[in-house]
Amino acid sequence: GFLQVASPVPQGPNKWHEQFPIAKGQRQSPIDIVTSNAKVDKALSDNPLKVSYSNNCCQSVTNTGASFQVVVDGAGTEISGGPLDSTYKLVQFHAHWGPLGGDEGSEHTVDGVTYPAELHLVHWNQKYKDVGEAVDKPDGLAVIGVFFSRGKEHAGFKPISDLFAKVPRKADKVDISFNYDPACLLPARRDYWTYLGSLTTPPLFESVTWIVMKDPVEVSAEQLAALRNLLWETPSGEGQMCNNYRPPQPLQGRLVRST
Ligand SMILES: CNS(=O)(=O)c1c(F)c(F)c(SCCO)c(F)c1F
Ligand SMILES: [Zn+2]
Q1: How far apart are CA 231 and CA 240, in angstroms?
Q2: d(C-alpha 168, C-alpha 190), whole Å
Q3: Centroid of ligand 1 to alpha carbon of 194 (angstroms)
Q4: Nearest Cα to 117, choosing from 161, 159, 177?
Q5: DSSP β-ladder status, 237-240 and 32-33
Q6: Which residue stretches of the chain have pLDDT < 50?
Q7: What protein residues have CB closer than 5 angstroms to ion ligand 2?
Q8: Integer Cα distance of 141 and 79 in angstroms
Q9: CA atoms of 103 and 98, how far apart (whole Å)
Q10: What pTM does this model have?
């Protein structure tokens, strides 16, 4: 369960509204993506999503106490096009996952189907001076979500998943000394669903243009298990970090568009 700094007992997602009323807002995330209700929007293909990351942008991996976070030096890590009206820069990526060996763990679901984990590549709108200014603006952030399915090892994710054992505790941090291009984590087919939503962890700001890739990428059972080398505080003391996902929230009449 999630930790709320204010109270000694961990407050799960169904209690967040007490401290963050926006939890019951009109554009909360994640959602269940009902594929038959998604509307193909030609404008998305007419102006394709452009992902141009550099391969020396990743600086370090840290344990945030809620996930791992690969911190990125935003230089040359831009996305634009598709649903975006401006250029956004990558600031970090992290993931959400479920219990050992289980099939739940993703935040978004597709026609009710869950995946064992979901990667989030977080970008901020360059019209703002920094991510701190962007984080609570309606067009402040763009998050690319990538579903992880259990299968063959993901060679591109291995250099990162091998680092989790080096950051077992909150605030542990290890530098990334090798070249790494986060674009290797994207599926080959770049089709996606997009909708207006929010952060999925407190403060739950309604500031995210979501871009959820349709195709999952395969990672091995061992790579999913490596996520549990990360530890966090549980009611009975330190334990394996898992189930750090928020379940789907009411769509509130929003339109989900599709390429
Ligand atoms: C989408 N996943 S999330 O809500 O859990 C999430 C997160 F965990 C982050 F740390 C950040 S960084 C914000 C400025 O630092 C973020 F934008 C997020 F959207
Ligand atoms: Zn996330």
Answers
A1: 5
A2: 33
A3: 17
A4: 161
A5: unpaired
A6: 1, 7-8
A7: 120
A8: 11
A9: 7
A10: 0.95
Pick from 170, 80, 166, 62: which is nearest to 123 by CA?
Answer: 80
Amino acid of residue 191 = D
**For a pocket test of ligand 1, which of 94, 196, 212 has the largest count of ligand atoms closer than 8 A to its C-beta?**
94
Mutation to probe ligand 1, out of 62, 108, 136, 201 (largest number of atoms < 8 A from CB): 201
Q: Token pair of 240, please? A: 């394996």
Distance CA 227, CA 241 (A): 7
Place of tokens 């680092």: 163
Helices (H), the chain: 16-19, 42-46, 131-134, 158-161, 221-226
Span 77-108, pLDDT tens digits: 999 999 999 999 999 999 999 998 899 999 99
Q: Are 235 and 10 in contact (CB under 8 A)?
A: yes
Give this complex's ipTM. Answer: 0.91
Q: Which residue's alpha carbon is at the smallest distance from atom 11 of ligand 1?
A: 122
Its sign, for the CA torsion 256, 141, 82, 109, is negative
Which token pair is 241? 């970090």
Task: Give residues with Cβ within 8 angstroms of 190, minimum separation 6.
Answer: 48, 49, 51, 213, 259
